[in-house]
Design goal:
Strand order of the largest sheet: 3-6-7-8-12-14-15-16
CATH architecture: Alpha-Beta Barrel
CATH topology: TIM Barrel
Largest sheet: 8 strands, parallel, barrel
Helix content: 25-40%
Order of helices and strands: EEEEEHEHEHHHEEEEHEEHEHHEHEH
């Protein structure tokens, strides 16, 4: 097969590395969820029992035919027959799982499609990944053991968890290298985690009056600003530690992470914990901290929304304001880093007619307005949620493009 140019970044824009031509990531997300064997649904996109080669081949051909160029998809955290590892003691990626990844990349290359890989928050149980040291890990303030009081906040602070995150990606890179190293140019980027966040109801952020020492500094947890500063510092360290390992495995790799807006979970913005009235305990990583880390670009997810009291445009403006958009855009430009909207879409529940049917004409109009807002705000590209999969049905909350291609066509038509 003909090679495909890597995507790189120059002067704050995505480009094709060999020719320097501009590249605008436009496309879709592909996700499949299923019961992997433990009774709970999980990401199953590349799981051997769920991976559908024929569907993937049709999907990638369809995406290319519609003038789209990027697919963002998900890796699994499960360990077992359907997992990325066959057992906690495994020292290689499951051959069947890796074979599916290679097939996906080969088909994408055949159609000129680039791929963004991202990961769930939860990590596989792996002695191999959790015990393998990362490059220069001693430079970072990482706790040696899991602290039960910190819950999921350990994901970014506990050394075995951070090792697992980075080493899982490194192992995939090395696995692809062994089979077909030229396929690495198909990968647009490795996104460390899908919608990274902290838990406000777990330590240290649930504390009201104490200090927390991190990287040589004491943070006053009675202060919203100090808690936010701690989250920012932890975010940057976590990204930098993982990215260093990934770039050691593939020096040309782009590394990123993605978030939803503060307002999407009912928060006013960074540093507002004591004033937020939301029942949602999640706090997204601050995009301004991400852009100042070693990521190559920032990915912010934005869905179209409106209500009786707020227009679609007002909702969009509120989402951006909660992410300090004006400051973020200036800082991203200064640092030469683009901002991508890796998930955008519409929700069917406010497109329903009185008889319960979804008004897709209204949905396409809504998406068109949303994509125009994204483009005009200065984003470098956008990916629709979602393409759908072999299990897709017409009544899904987000209309799947495989059944309603007009949504993908609207995305493509609105971007030069």
């Amino acid at each position: 097969m003909a090679p495909i140019e890597r995507v790189a970044i120059r002067d704050g824009r995505f480009i094709l590395a060999d020719t320097g031509r501009p590249f605008v990531p436009l496309g879709v997300n592909y996700c499949r969820v299923g019961d992997l064997g433990d009774g709970k649904p999980g990401h199953a996109t590349f799981a051997p029992r769920f991976y559908d080669q024929a569907f993937v081949e049709r999907m990638l051909a369809d995406i290319a035919a519609r003038g789209l160029n990027t697919v963002r998809t998900f890796h699994i955290y499960y360990v077992g027959a359907e997992g990325i590892l066959l057992s906690p003691e495994a020292r290689e990626i499951s051959p069947a799982y890796l074979s599916n990844v290679v097939h996906f990349l080969r088909e994408a290359r055949q159609h000129g499609i680039h791929v963004i890989f991202t990961w769930d928050i939860w990590l596989p149980s792996s002695e191999w990944w959790s015990s393998t040291p990362l490059p220069d890990e001693e430079r970072y303030d990482l706790r040696p053991e899991w602290d039960q009081s910190m819950g999921i906040n350990n994901i970014r602070l506990c050394l075995p968890a951070v090792r697992t995150r980075a080493n899982a990606i490194v192992a995939l890179i090395e696995g692809v290298k062994q089979i077909a190293p030229d396929l690495l140019s198909v990968v647009l980027a490795w996104e460390l985690e899908n919608e990274i966040c902290f838990a406000a109801d777990q330590m240290p952020f649930s504390a009201r009056a104490r200090t927390f020492r991190f990287a040589g500094r004491d943070y006053d947890l009675s202060s919203d600003d100090e808690k936010q500063a701690l989250m920012d510092a932890v975010t940057v360290q976590w990204v930098d530690c993982c990215a260093r390992a990934i770039r050691r495995a593939d020096p040309k790799a782009l590394v990123s992470a993605d978030v939803y807006a503060f307002a999407a979970v009912g928060r006013l913005g960074p540093g507002s914990l004591s004033r937020d009235t939301t029942a949602d305990t999640r706090v997204p990583a601050r995009p301004l901290a991400l852009v100042r880390s070693s990521v190559d670009y920032v990915d912010i997810h934005l869905y179209a929304w409106r209500s009786d009291s707020e227009s679609q445009g007002e909702s969009f403006a509120r989402m951006l304001a909660s992410d300090e958009w004006d400051t973020l855009r200036v800082e991203a430009s200064r640092l030469g880093k683009p901002i991508l909207c890796g998930e955008c879409g519409v929700a069917a529940h406010y497109l329903r007619k009185p008889d319960g049917a979804i008004d897709h004409a209204m949905g396409v109009e809504c998406l068109a307005k949303h994509v125009r807002n994204i483009r005009d705000a200065g984003f470098a590209g956008a990916l629709y949620w979602h393409y759908g999969n072999p299990d897709s049905t017409p009544d899904e909350e987000q209309p799947p493009m495989v059944l309603f291609p007009q949504y993908g066509d609207a995305l493509r038509a609105l971007w030069p």
